[in-house]
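[Structure tokenization] protein backbone as discrete codes

[Encoding] learned vocabulary of local backbone shapes

[Begin record] amino acids and matching fold tokens:

___
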Amino acid sequence: MNKLWKKVVAAGLAGAMTCGLAACGSSGGGSADSGSLVFMIWDSGQKEGMEAMAEAYMADYPDVKIEVQASGWDEYWTKLEAAAKSNSLPDIFWMHSNQMFTYADAGILADCTDIVNESDYSEISVENAKGSDGKIYGVPKDKDTVALLYNKELFDQAGVEYPTTEWTWDDIESASQKIYDATGKYGYMAYSHDQIGYWNFVYQNGGKILSDDGSEAMYTEDATAEAIKYYVGLQENDWCPTQEQFANTGAAEMFFSGQGAMYYAGNWDLANLCKTYGDMNGKWDVAVLPKCPDPAEGDGRAVISNSVSYATAAEGKNHDLAMDFLKFLGSEEGQRIQGESGVAIPAYNGLEDTWVQTFADQGFEVNVGNLIEQFDYSVKYVNNASRRVWEPEVEQTMLDIYAGTLTVDEGIEIIQDEVTKAISEQ
């Protein structure tokens, strides 16, 4: 646990272990078949799906009431941190892998090792639910992947064939140039991002961001540095917007307004995009990520995969009920309901098609099924116990590189030092 967080929660933890973090402000009984639970999430687009899971559980337990509360991403973490300090955490809440080590290592989360059958879930989802001690502190919720979105109309106007599974980086550049020359619209819009951006290129090139055990930064390794230089360099092309432009207008907005032909997006956004831009139905599609044509190591295929967990606090008067609901959320029945909501791919093995089918059922002409094959070569989301410290520093340095205040080589050296320092001080 990093030293800053330890200071922030120390006072709260002292009282939490006696009055119970989950229930100091909660109502309801503590048995596993009656009481009231507050279930907090950060994505309003998934609220309906979470409510469907809660309703299924309440149908079996009529004396249980579960309220799903949705906040925006930033507000969510502000609320959760404040709740941890004041001993008033919600009964059930989502835990992102970014924060798992912080909360688990602080003793805030309940040990879920005994209620999680690891073989039921994807390996990445299970690993993302673990703390530094190797115990499981959340029930795997989902698993994700990254898609290449492309505008079929712009491709057609430029006479360019749609992306295939054999596309490489060369193809994405060639198509971008042809589309720009023919239509004046942007090609591939490479915005500054880790999971949905340069990390994929790094691992496709055979590089790594961290060592396998997370104990070393590897930004200055040749394969890693080369991929970062390549990704940043895409902005030098006329067919790619600048980061300043992205700051004013996001890639999704550019894409769906017909200003750009391609960008990367997480699968978790696809259902909402289909609904939000219904007038574009049939005019765009998704493909697997293009591979590196000449990797330093490997076959050139890789995609970053992350996941979210369902968690509860370590102690509290609603503990038994919360743990029982967690078991339901992780069950095949619960995960199937989540998949059928269309917003997330279940972590539970074999239920991927429940997510895929929802797009066809709702009449969305997007071939999301081809994204499932990417799990065969997915790479676990980059994370370690010091990520909370080094992530914002890395993000800012990347923006400085894009702004031209640092060369790529200078920026990579700074990032290497920043991450190494954060790890050593953990």
Observations:
- DSSP finds 17 helices and 13 strands in the chain.
- The two ends are 7 Å apart (CA to CA).
- The mean pLDDT is 92.
